[in-house]
From TrEMBL:
Residues 93-504 form the Major facilitator superfamily (MFS) profile domain. InterPro entries: MFS_dom, MFS_sugar_transport-like, MFS_trans_sf, Sugar_transporter_CS. This is Major facilitator superfamily (MFS) profile domain-containing protein. Its main location: membrane. It is a multi-pass membrane protein. It comes from Mola mola.
Amino acid sequence: RNLQNPDFESTTAFLGKWGRFQQQVFFLLCLRSIPTGYIGLSVVFLADTPQHRCFIPAHANVSAAWRNRSVPPEEGPGGGLALSQCSRYRLEDMVRFSEGDLLPGVDVNLTNVATEGCLDGWEYDQSVYTSTVVSEWDLVCDDQWKKPLTSSVFFFGILIGSFISGQLSDRFGRKIVTILALVVQAFFTFISIFSPSWAFFCCLYFFVGVGNSSGFVAAFVLGTEIFGPHVRKIFSTLGSNLVFAVGYMLLPLFAFITRDWKMLLVALTLPIPLYLPLWWYVPESPRWLLSQGRVEEAEAIIREAAKKNKIEPPSLIFAPLQGKTQNICDLIGSQNIRGVSFTLICIAIAYFAVSLNTVNLHGNSYLNCFLSATVELPAYVLSWIMFRRCSRRLCLFSTLFTTGLFLLFVQLMPASMTLSKTELSKFAVTIAFSIVYGYTVEVYPTVLRTTALGTSSMIARIGSILSPYIIYLRSYSLSLPYILIGCFSVLCALLSLLLPETYGMPLPDTISQMQRFPGAAL
């Protein structure tokens, strides 16, 4: 049976708000977010599509003039003409014209020359990337559907990782899952380099996603349960997310230096083992230990914290009460989890679709990604300010509605200005993403907090799984992804007004203490 403390925060208030103990745990858990940031969106560069054209074999007797004009023009998604990336003039005809010294466009009317597919494969432009997953396994033309599927497999791994993390963390502890996820993430990221095929790479990349999300969720909840109300707000909206953005900013730097998908994976793996010593410097959540009836261990952690803060603890810290064991089934019928989860789905679609689309915007892909990451820094600062002073519903409504408006009007901008308005959308949706994570922690009780956050995050990954396919729609219409994401965001903004309000409320320890969904029972 569970043992519960009715007022954990007042019982541990003697530790103070910001002593050496809180500082150590705060900075170490924040640093834990760096690998999550640069691996979470690594698919932007790993699976980017370089410019390509049909390959003409070197042994083919084709003149230089015909090699330069071997690709026919076709209408692009923006409406203008562009060179085809999936067809060429028939090789047999080009050989015959070359042997007859006939010049393309002069002696031969190109509109009358038959075309064929890229029967000999493709040649890829290497000015931006030496190699990507796309060029490694020719995920173009008839196989271009595999590119968004690569992203979706990774995000499906994040979905599964979020769910598993919640279950394991609530059963075995937040700390062990936080560290174990690092090992899983490092191992599968590194061995992905040796993938013999695209399908095998996707299988390994799935487990990279599992490790990426499970560690972040466990560490996030660990921090929010250790800190008091004041530091918790900073950690959940500013601390971990700000460092996540720093990791995100490192991604284009790693990609620019390596320019090869295998070397990029090596660069992303090497720093991860440096985080393993966290096991000896970050304690288990005392709240979770109490919920499991492990009172002595919880007291030992609090007494050690008091010693670091140079505070004399009381002789008796916890006077626990008995309660019943609870599991995820107790949340299934909750209106809260349905409302929060739908909001998370919409936010995830907007956030990941805008982030994944950065390499498709006008300008340098590395710089665009860096700017997309940089804009998150002021966004997280503003989210912290709003989280401290504003209603949660007002925060979510204003940021999501702003996101939708910017995205709906982005197609009215010239191509050279699309980046500016897209980054404004990214700024707004990042604020919403940060606030909704902190809000989710406030909604759910200690006994199921990681399970609930993991389940909500898992459901939200439906949005991240769909986002690569929404971006894929730009091959049919450049404005269609922005219209869909914008409509999603506006709808979600309106529905967020129905969520329960948690501003100024203490963290619930039991399901009965959860804030109710307006007009419905828990």
